[in-house]
Write a structure and sequence with these properties.
This protein is of the alpha+beta class. It folds into 2 domains: 260 residues, Beta Polymerase, domain 2, CATH 3.30.460.20; 58 residues, no CATH class. 59% of the residues lie in helices and 15% in strands. It is built from 8 helices and 7 strands, in the order βββααββββαααααα. Strands 2-1-3-7-6-5-4 form a 7-stranded mixed β-sheet. The model has no long low-confidence stretch (mean pLDDT 81).
Length: 330
Amino acid sequence: MLAPMLRTFSALDGHLHVEEDAPAGALPLGALWLDLQSPTPQEEAAVERLVGLDIPTRAEAAAIGESARLYIEEGALVMTAAVVAGVSEGRRPVAADVTFVLTSSLLVTVRDSDPLPFRAFVQKCKREPAVRERPETVFLALVETIIDRAAQLLDGAQADLERVSAEAFADADRKARRVPIDSRILVKRLGRINALVARLRESLLGLGRMLAFFRQNAAEGLPESAMRRLAAMEGDIRALAEFDAQLSNELSFVLEALFGLTNAEQNRIIRVFTIASVLFLPPTLVGTVYGMNFEVMPELKWAFGYPMAIGLMVGSAVLPYWLFRRNGWL
């Protein structure tokens, strides 16, 4: 569980000023964005009094259905979307819900996780304090950072998939190095890539629905630059969704091909053992015949009996081998 934190972002002197661990009793001058990270009930109640709205808790946001994730309450847009988290920390990726409450004068975000796009946006505001005159432009800039991070993760997933594919199908290099592939490790890596791609698909779907809802209900009156940014973001989401679908298809192909290679390798090993058993069966039969303890066996007292038995065993092994080679079974 992350430590509770309340950040405020205020427009001061044309810049977006960040205040960490801000008090929840009153809004700072020029406040545009309140970011609640794992808020305590007292902090959430204080922000609700300041905003004049009922801000859904994380449990409430998780309990509502997909159709109720986007709604309007007392003129404010309440939007919940999933943001991929945990990748930069080396954990299994999860789709963490983030609630955006957008009023005419303030943006409020409520989250329990700490996705990298939020940290990156905060650092960007500290390094490059660009002018943000409206909460809508702050909202668009924040969502744009989330989309950029999704694009980076998809590029990384594609690079990981290409490395797995190269290891699985590089037969010539593997024979030269005499290093067999470990299918279990490759399948686990494919599973991790698939988990990330699935979480990104879920996130992109939610972000696309959220931007469409925003365009329909709050885009009127935005500056032309913000409208161009909104259109570009919607186009990026469509392109990334197509990229995600293509990556999923490639994942399925590589996984099926890897299973096919594993089955082919197992069949080859079984064939080798089958041929070996067939080759050794006639010599075993000859040795068994001459290993019987009968008193009347003429070859026992024959000087050439032992060489003859050895020759029979060798010949009975060479003949099937020649037949297999002739028919192309080896």
